[in-house]
Amino acid sequence: MSTIIEAPRSPRVRSSKGRVNWEKWGWLYMRLSGVLLLILIFGHLFVNLVLGQGIKEIDFAFVAGKYATPFWQWWDVVMLWLAMIHGSNGMRTIVNDYASNRVVRRVLLGGILVAAVVLIVLGTLVVFTFDPCSTLIPADQALSFCPVP
Amino acid sequence: MPNEAASTLTTARSSSKRPAGTLYRGNTGMWSWVLHRITGVAIYFFLLVHVLDTAMIRVSPEAYDSVMSTYKNPLMGLGETALVIAIMFHAFNGIRIILIDFWSKGAKYQRVMFWIVIALWVIGTAGFAPIHLHNVFTEGQ
Question: Cβ of A58 and B87 within 8 Å?
Answer without folding.
Answer: no
